[in-house]
C-alpha cells in the first residue's frame, strides 16, 4: 500500500512531521515541551535481527543480555535458534508468532546457512570496485538479471537446493531482518482479509502505524551501493538465498521490488541493538522502528534515546520551544572532533550543519 505525503500519520500529540527548510522531513514541537518529557514511545520494532554469534546470549524477544552467559529459557515448539531471558519473553514470542511461520522461516534459513558454508564462493567481489560504475541503470540491470534467474528456476526441490548461494554472517543478518518484515506483512495481509476474502479498511488496524511510517521512509539503495559497490552482488545473492529458503507462506510476498524496498529503507533508518551496560558496549544487531525515523541528527541533540527491552523512548534533554525541531544524535557522542563526527555521519549520506559543527568549522 502506498501512502501519499498528505496522509502522514500523527506520531505524537507533542510534535508534527513536516518538511524541513534544508530538505527531507523532521519533527517540530507543536507547543512548548518541558525538559524530561517523553515525546515518543515506540513499543516494538517492525523487524530486528541479532548476529548469529550472539543468538544464545541475547533474548530473541526483549534483547536482554547477561554479560555473555547463555540464556536458559526456551519455549515449547520453538527451535534452537531462539533463546529467551524469561518465560514471559518466550510466551510473548510464541503469541506473536502464533502460526509458527516466522520460526519456521528462520529455522530453514539457519539450516541452509550452515549447509552453504561448505561452498564458499569461487570468486570474491572486489571491495575496491569503482563506485562511479554503479548507476541507477546498472543497478536495474543487475536486478533484471535476477528476475531472469527466477524465471529459469527448476521446479524440483533437490535441484533448487543446489542453487542456494553462499552467504556470510553479515548477509545472514540482513536475511533475518528481511524475513521479519515479510512476516509482519504476512500477518497484516491476513488480518485485512474479511470473511469474503476482500480487503478491509487498513486504517481500522491500529498496529499498522509502523507500516504507514515505513511506507513513507526514503530508500537509500543507490547512495549506499555507490558508496559500497560490492553490495550490488551481495544484495542480489541475499535475495536469491531468500527465494530458495523462506517458507511457502511468505513466498507470495517476496519479489525483487519488495526486497529492494525493505533493504533500501533499512540502510539509513536502522537503530543498532547495543548492550545497555556502561563502558564498552557490545553490538548485537539492529532493529527498525519506522515511527522513530523522522528525527533528524544534531551533534548537540535536544532528545535522548533510551531502549527498554523492545521499546524505544525519546525524552527531551532541555526545554523545547514551540516550532523548534527536535533532534537525536546518530552514532557518535558529540564530543569527537568535527571531522571525525562527519566521517561517521557519511554513512547517512549528509553533511551535518548543526550549530556545533558550523561553529567548529569556522
UniProtKB/TrEMBL annotation:
Residues 13-331 form the SET domain. PANTHER family: HISTONE-LYSINE N-METHYLTRANSFERASE SMYD, POTENTIAL PROTEIN LYSINE METHYLTRANSFERASE SET6. The keyword Transferase applies. GO terms for biological process: methylation. GO terms for molecular function: methyltransferase activity. The keyword Methyltransferase applies. The gene is SET6. Keywords: Methyltransferase, Transferase. CDD domains: SET_SMYD. InterPro entries: H3K4_H4K5_MeTrfase, SET_dom, SET_dom_sf. Pfam families: SET (PF00856). This is Potential protein lysine methyltransferase Set6p. SUPFAM superfamilies: SET domain. Gene3D superfamilies: SET domain. It comes from [Candida] anglica. It comes from the Eukaryota.
Amino acid at each position: 500500500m502506498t501512502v501519499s505525503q498528505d496522509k502522514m500519520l500523527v506520531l505524537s500529540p507533542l510534535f508534527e512531521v513536516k518538511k524541513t527548510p534544508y530538505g527531507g522531513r523532521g519533527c517540530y514541537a507543536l507547543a512548548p515541551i518541558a525538559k524530561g518529557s517523553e515525546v515518543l514511545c515506540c513499543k516494538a520494532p517492525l523487524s530486528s535481527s541479532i548476529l548469529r554469534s550472539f543468538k544464545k546470549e541475547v533474548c530473541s524477544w526483549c534483547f536482554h543480555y547477561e554479560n555473555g552467559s547463555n540464556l536458559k529459557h526456551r519455549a515449547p515448539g520453538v527451535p534452537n535458534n531462539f533463546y529467551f531471558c524469561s518465560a514471559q519473553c518466550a510466551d510473548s514470542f510464541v503469541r506473536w508468532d502464533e502460526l509458527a511461520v516466522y520460526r519456521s522461516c528462520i529455522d530453514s534459513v539457519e539450516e541452509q546457512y550452515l549447509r552453504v558454508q561448505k561452498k564458499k564462493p569461487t570468486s570474491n567481489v572486489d571491495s575496491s570496485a569503482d563506485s562511479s560504475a554503479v548507476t541507477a541503470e546498472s543497478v536495474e540491470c543487475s536486478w533484471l538479471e535476477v528476475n531472469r534467474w527466477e524465471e529459469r528456476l527448476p521446479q524440483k526441490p533437490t535441484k533448487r537446493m543446489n542453487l542456494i548461494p553462499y552467504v556470510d554472517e553479515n548477509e545472514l543478518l540482513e536475511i533475518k531482518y528481511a524475513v521479519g518484515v515479510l512476516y509482519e506483512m504476512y500477518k497484516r495481509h491476513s488480518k485485512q482479509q474479511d470473511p469474503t476474502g476482500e480487503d478491509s479498511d487498513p486504517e481500522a488496524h491500529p498496529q499498522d502505524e509502523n507500516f504507514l511510517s515505513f511506507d513513507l521512509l526514503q530508500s537509500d539503495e543507490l547512495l549506499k551501493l555507490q558508496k559500497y559497490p560490492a553490495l550490488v552482488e551481495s544484495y542480489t545473492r541475499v535475495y536469491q538465498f531468500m527465494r530458495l529458503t523462506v517458507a511457502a507462506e511468505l513466498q507470495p510476498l517476496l519479489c525483487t521490488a519488495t526486497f529492494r524496498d525493505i533493504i533500501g529503507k533499512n540502510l539509513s533508518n536502522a537503530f543498532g541493538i547495543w548492550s545497555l551496560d556502561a563502558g564498552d558496549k557490545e553490538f548485537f544487531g539492529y532493529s527498525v522502528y519506522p515511527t522513530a525515523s523522522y528525527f533528524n541528527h544534531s551533534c548537540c541533540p535536544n532528545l535522548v534515546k533510551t531502549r527498554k527491552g523492545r521499546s524505544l523512548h525519546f525524552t527531551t534533554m532541555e526545554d523545547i520551544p514551540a516550532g523548534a525541531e527536535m533532534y537525536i544524535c546518530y552514532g557518535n557522542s558529540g564530543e569527537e572532533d568535527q571531522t571525525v563526527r562527519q566521517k561517521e555521519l557519511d554513512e547517512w549520506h549528509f553533511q551535518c550543519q548543526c550549530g556545533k559543527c558550523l561553529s567548529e568549522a569556522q
